[in-house]
Amino acid sequence: MTAEPLALGLDIGGTKVVGGVVDADGTIISTIRRGTPAAGGNALRDVVVAVARDLGERFPVAAIGVGTAGLVDPARSTVLFATHLGWRNEPVRALLEAACDVPVLVENDANAAAWAEFRFGAARDATDSVIMVTVGTGVGGGFVLGGELVRGATTTAGEVGHMVAVRGGRLCGCGRNGCLDQYASGHALVRYARDGGFLDGTAVAAAARMGDPVATGAFRQVAEWLARGVADIVQLLDPQVVVIGGGLAEAGDVLMDPLLEVYRKESGDRGGWPQPQVRAAELGNLAGLVGAADLARRHRGSPR
């Protein structure tokens, strides 16, 4: 039996570009990390190509998967719009295929992370359906239903941060009022903790782990809003597992304990129906890289 080939995953974000060679079991064999150029645009393009070429020349990769912030076209070829990267209509597939001569697949980073947790992480025992909610600077997500990643007609499925949590509430960057993003994100966490003198989420998380009452109270507020959103998603989609990931999830119990407590109250007994398990993500900030690589490996022979 022929062994599954290696794939290269690229995680492109506002602060870093990480490349990794990933085997069929989701194990990362080698990585490279570079800072994202402040100028973005063409400078970022050069960094992405350099990282891919470096790893591609050292390992026999059969495909490249790109997990990127921003909106990706339905063909999984072009980054249509990524504010923090300075990209608009960026032909990432064509760029990397010309540079590395292997098939390339481009995916939104939250979708790629959801796929990684389904295949190799916190939801690897699920057979059918997983919802991942990512809680970082903003709130995002990805859905796996029927064993397949759900992208939607315009590739924006899973944008749970823009469900309305408070009718007529805080103005969101998307143009709507009261989005979950405004109440359950890293930005919201800092806003809740500002009276305690905290200026960023890292400081709030560190203080919460030490038992600071302002910081733990801020995490509880985030957890309460997030739990309500999760309960609504579960009622709609009935997944086997819900995974909570992103930077805030790395705070551990200070987020997960109140989240689970409120989730149980919000969801009730659902008329006696079984409840999905709600779990913390396991793959951390490398999930997008691993998921993108696996998706590229699986789709390398698919028609375009």
UniProtKB/TrEMBL annotation:
Keywords for this protein: Kinase, Transferase
SUPFAM superfamilies: Actin-like ATPase domain (SSF53067)
Molecular function GO labels: kinase activity
Transferase keyword on record: yes
InterPro entries, sorted: ATPase_NBD, ROK, ROK_cs
Pfam families assigned: ROK (PF00480)
Record has Coiled coil as a keyword: no
Record Gene3D superfamilies: 3.30.420.40
Family statement drawn from the similarity comment of this UniProt entry: Belongs to the ROK (NagC/XylR) family.
Descriptive protein name: Glucokinase
Organism from which the protein derives: Micromonospora phaseoli
